[in-house]
Amino acid sequence: MSIEINSEELIKDFEVVHEHYEANRKKIEELLEAQKNLFSKTIDQLKPAIDWVREKQLTFTHPRIKYQSGRGPIVGYNSKDNLLYVLEADRKWVIKVDLYSKEEKQLPVWKFIEESSFEDAMDGLLYIKKMINEYNNQLLVSINELESQLKKY
């Protein structure tokens, strides 16, 4: 049994596939750039609100991440390595906090977006719009419980 391989045709096929590969790689780069730009623009738009929360000494929370931060919005969490990602809006840095050692490392926003979940980052950043209402709702629940306890006696 003999195997016939036409190298020229094989290389032509490779060229076609490689063109698609390069186009797809370029598209991924464009989409990552669009994500970075949207995240950065959102930081700029929310900066006054972030500053207000910090001035009032409230903590930032995330809709799906259980930790809190007084420093800035929580934009990610790596459960495998127990790393919390917190936005420092003044400098547009993301602070990677090792929750075991408390060691901190600064990441530029672009690097953070490339390495992390864009959805977690945006959800954490945009949560500031709902966060204060959530805090108030929690206080109302506490008030109701305390009033019920008083009425009981």
TrEMBL record:
Domain of life: Bacteria
UniProt-recorded name of the protein: Uncharacterized protein
